[in-house]
């Protein structure tokens, strides 16, 4: 059976746990995501171990954000790990994104528009007052213009962003919560089926699966629900 278009976020500070989760959920999903905590603690070994545990596609979610030269150097430093996706913040600007694209041409440089944890009040606090969608669309257009081949956005914004950037750009949505699941620190959320129906290409799901009593069963249930059989 084709794995579901889901990236499971391996958010743990223990590499053995990340490898165990990979073995449990890997057969059900297309992608495994290594985030900042795991990467900062273990470095390239985190990617190697997750791959050895069965991940075919690795999403390296480092959310780089610095001056172009620094981000270019950082992207070059991880390009040899051959992640399928590498994230940068779109708000780093055109030259920063171009530097990442040039440094890691085989990797999909993936620009994060507006973090799914941020609500309207947070956006006002950081000087982005107005609907999150406005900022997300603006940043999406900028990132694609700079060469990003994938975008991270809220599932609530995915349809409008698709209209903004057209086909051919992969839209990736965290902030996904199965019905009844805790929202945790996420704000702009939707259910897995809503995200897919809105046009997301890949859903990022972490805690609802990794904190389940049986992560393998939770991943299987999520995958089945996306096939319409759950
Ligand atoms: O806007 C963003 C960008 C990235 N993330 C990452 O996705 C996962 C979500 O995990 P959950 O446990 O399902 O909330 C996490 O690794 C974030 O760093 C995001 O949530 N929002």
UniProtKB/TrEMBL annotation:
Its EC number is 4.1.1.23. It is an enzyme of class 4 (lyase). SUPFAM superfamilies: Ribulose-phoshate binding barrel. The active site is at 63 (proton donor). Substrate binds at residues 11, 33, 61-70, 116, 177, 186, 206-207. Residues 5-222 form the Orotidine 5'-phosphate decarboxylase domain. Keywords: Decarboxylase, Lyase, Pyrimidine biosynthesis. Pathway: Pyrimidine metabolism; UMP biosynthesis via de novo pathway; UMP from orotate: step 2/2. Pfam families: OMPdecase. It catalyses: orotidine 5'-phosphate + H(+) = UMP + CO2. Belongs to the OMP decarboxylase family. Type 1 subfamily. Catalyzes the decarboxylation of orotidine 5'-monophosphate (OMP) to uridine 5'-monophosphate (UMP). Homodimer. HAMAP family: OMPdecase_type1_B. This is Orotidine 5'-phosphate decarboxylase.
